[in-house]
Amino acid sequence: MPLRIVQSKQNSRLKQLRRALAQPLHEAGDDGRVLVGIEGPNLVGEALRAGIRIACVFVAAGAEKLLDLIPLEPHTEMLLLPKSLLDSVLTTEAPQAIAALVEAPDWSWDDLLDCSKGKAALIVVLAGLQDPGNMGTILRSAEAFGASGAVSLPGTVSAWNPKAVRASAGSVFRLPLLAVGADECFQQLRAAKVRILTAATQGADPVQSARLAEAVAFLIGNEGNGVAREIAAQANGAITIPCPGPVESLNAGVAASVLLYEASRQRGGLR
C-alpha cells in the first residue's frame, strides 16, 4: 500500500494512535481487536518478528527510508505526516520518526500454565506495581530467565504503557501476559498446583533456600508498600533476598529480576 499523506490532526488514524498511547488497551479496531501504540523502528521491528499484526504505520516526512529497514507486509496501511504533527502525538521527550498501531496479543491461562515442554511453570504476579519502567524491566527479565508468563492484577500499571513497552525491549510482544482479578488469578494458580511465594523484606525465608525448580509464582507488590496484606495472605510462603549492604529493600524491578535469576539457576537454565 503506498504512503498516504496526512496533514490534519483530525485524521481518524492519528486520533486512534493518540488514544492508544494515552489509554493503553482502551482502543479497538474495526474488527474489535485491541490496538496499542508503539514508537520507534526498533519496537516496530520487534513486533513484526513476534508475529504481531501491524494495523497502521506512521512515518514523519523526510524519514521514509526507515521503512526500508522494516519488513512490512505490502498491504500495511502507511501514513506520511509532518514531523511536528507526529511529535505532537508521541510520548517520548525526543520522539522518533516512526510509530505504529498494532494488535495486542491475545493470551490465555493455557499459554501461562502449559507444561507440555517439560518445564514447570514460572510466573510473575504483579500486584499494585506502579512504575512503568519497573513493569517493562520485569517483563524483559521474565523472558530472559525463561518464565512462563506474567499476571497483572488490578491497580497495576498497564504493560502497554509506552514507557513500559520501551523498557521491555520487545518482551511485551512475546511473553504471555494476562490482566485479571485476584480471585481468578489465585484460583487458576491453585488449580494448576503452582506454589505462590510473596516477596518480602522481613519475616521471610532467603530465596536461595526456596524450592524454585517446582511450579512457582512470585508475588511482586507496590514499589512503596510492597504486597498488600490481603494479596499476601493468598501466598503459600514468603521469600526475601538477603542484602549484606545497608539498604532496606531493592527496587521492584531489580528484586523480581533476582528472584527470576535464582529460579532459572535452580532449574539448570544457567550454565
What characteristics describe this protein?
31% helix, elongated, 271 residues, 7-stranded parallel sheet, 2 domains, single chain, Alpha/beta knot, 6-stranded mixed sheet, 60s Ribosomal Protein L30, Chain: A, alpha/beta
Give an account of the 3D structure.
31% of the residues lie in helices and 21% in strands. The strands form 2 sheets. It has a 7-stranded parallel beta sheet with strand order 9-8-7-12-10-13-11. It has helices at 12-22, 41-49, 83-87, 109-113, 132-144, 162-168, 171-174, 182-191, 229-232, 252-266, and strands at 4-5, 27-28, 34-39, 54-60, 77-81, 98-103, 122-126, 149-152, 177-179, 195-199, 205-206, 216-220, 237-240. It is elongated. The chain folds into 2 domains: 4-103, Ribosomal protein L30/S12 (60s Ribosomal Protein L30, Chain: A); 109-266, SPOUT methyltransferase, trefoil knot domain (Alpha/beta knot). It is an alpha/beta fold. The model has no long low-confidence stretch (mean pLDDT 92).
